[in-house]
Specification:
The protein is α/β, with parallel strands linked by helices and 455 residues long. It contains 16 helices and 17 strands. The relative contact order is 0.16.
Length: 455
């Protein structure tokens, strides 16, 4: 057998069907596919153009980030922590975000992608909030990452004088056009008909976007119920809680990814489970924003009912999926005083194979197995947080973080090598990003608030 790249001597956390962990393991890949996985001795007969000594590495599948706002990066750290949820969105987040130019959205997305690649994420599902859609799509494609993306899509006419039907028609026309120009046809970066969610989409838009996703084999991702406000609105306006109303519309199902889902009740959780709807939890965002997830979140119950739970990093603050996995492994142990909840191996499943299921790509990514895409992460273990190595899965989640990612391959292409992106000029990007951030904040007219004086 011949391969283009052969990594030998590594510890391989395969995430395959039997969840094998191979010490002195080897992985061979040719083109964009893995051709062999096993003990190094078993792959000794393979000839390869490039042979990598992997003895210092733990190899994992690429992480799958199922909820990330890639075009918020330039406002990182600017929004005050202690704001009420509605004020944060209406006065700070949305005006700042919509004040970006197309060029600023491009740089923001590139910075987010660099942060993801450098910490081991090889695939992401964007939150459905891109404004300069074509420009950002081109910029993402040039980085080497795999992605499913969506534009900012809503249609509810809050002004009674507005043309509600026209808003719905315009939203659907844009989504259909996106899928035509960026189809999910095997390319790494493709469009999905994502929705903002919450209460911003009419029933007509929910049903039309769902029909489009089912026809095209894509999916819909939408925010729902991070705080009680979504349930309060739906109860007041439909007489049903949000997930009950979506069920009545016929839009639940394996094509749908509902994000946050903190303030749901047992009936809603049961509907998610019975319909095959996916749920993405963003524990970092939930804790930082004080959603009350430890007190109210039914994630243990949803997991026990068979709901496929994936993980996301959400906003601009952090795009390191290993930090998110650590939070997931810790959060409900403490909240429920039950140390059996979400052990490290289950958190790792959420960040890999479960995320692949959300994207409909579990036969392609999410594990290291012959025939799957060569999306791999090499974690450098010659670091103090890794030594000694006694249980690589537990240590990956509890001790390591993304700073130990040495190399990353997507489709067999090395997009991170020796801790640096190979397809992104990081130094130039950071300089440009800082200048653009300064300009955005200056234009906003919002105050720079800090608890401590900044001289």
């Amino acid at each position: 057998m011949h391969a283009e790249t052969l990594i030998t001597g590594a510890t391989v956390i395969t995430m395959d069907d039997t969840r094998r962990v191979l010490r002195d393991g080897a992985v061979a890949f040719a083109g964009d596919r893995i051709v062999a996985v096993g003990k190094s001795a078993e792959l000794a007969g393979i000839t390869a153009r490039e042979v990598i000594d992997g003895r210092r590495f733990v190899l994992t599948p690429g992480f799958v980030n199922c909820h990330v706002h890639v075009t918020e990066t330039l406002i990182r750290g600017f929004i005050p922590e202690a704001l009420p949820f509605d004020e944060e969105l209406e006065r700070w987040v949305i005006p700042l975000y919509k004040g970006h130019s197309a060029a600023e959205q491009v740089v923001s997305a590139q910075m987010a992608v660099a942060a993801m690649l450098r910490t081991g994420t090889t695939t992401f599902l964007e939150a459905g909030t891109i404004l300069a859609f074509d420009e950002v799509m081109a910029a993402i494609a040039d980085t080497g990452i795999r992605a499913r993306t969506g534009r900012w899509t809503e249609d509810r006419a809050w002004d009674p004088a507005a043309d509600g039907a026209g808003l719905t028609q315009a939203a659907m026309a844009a989504l259909e056009d996106d899928l035509e120009r960026h189809p999910q046809d095997g390319r790494r970066v493709a469009a999905w008909p994502n929705l903002i969610g919450h209460m911003t989409a009419t029933d007509a838009l929910w049903q039309a976007a769902t029909a489009l996703a089912r026809r095209s084999g894509t999916g819909v991702s939408a925010h729902m119920s991070p705080v009680p406000g979504d349930a309060e609105w739906y109860l007041a306006n439909t007489g049903q809680r949000p997930v009950e109303h979506l069920a009545a519309l016929g839009v639940l199902g394996p094509h749908l990814n509902l994000v946050h889902m903190v303030h749901v009740d047992a009936r809603e959780a049961a509907l998610v489970a019975s319909s095959g709807t996916h749920v993405t939890h963003c524990p970092g965002a939930a804790i930082r924003c004080g959603y009350g997830v430890g007190r109210h979140g039914l994630f243990p119950e949803m997991a026990a009912a068979g709901v496929n739970i994936a993980l996301g990093t959400d906003g601009a603050d952090n795009h390191d999926m290993l930090r998110v996995m650590t939070l997931m492994a810790a959060l409900f142990k403490d909240a429920r005083r039950d140390r059996s909840l979400f052990p490290a191996h289950q958190a790792l499943e959420m960040g890999t194979i479960n995320g692949a299921k959300v994207l409909g790509l579990s036969d392609t990514i999410g594990s290291i197995a012959p025939g799957k895409k060569a999306d791999l992460v090499a974690h450098d273990t010659r670091r103090p947080e890794w030594q000694p190595i006694n249980n690589p899965v537990d240590q990956l989640v509890w001790a390591a973080d993304g700073r130990g990612v040495h190399s990353v391959w997507v489709d067999g292409v090395r997009v991170v090598e020796d801790f640096r992106c190979t397809m992104i000029d990081e130094e130039a990007l950071y300089d440009t990003g800082q200048a653009m951030a300064d300009a955005i904040l200056a234009r906003s007219g919002l105050p720079r608030l800090s608890e401590w004086p900044v001289a």
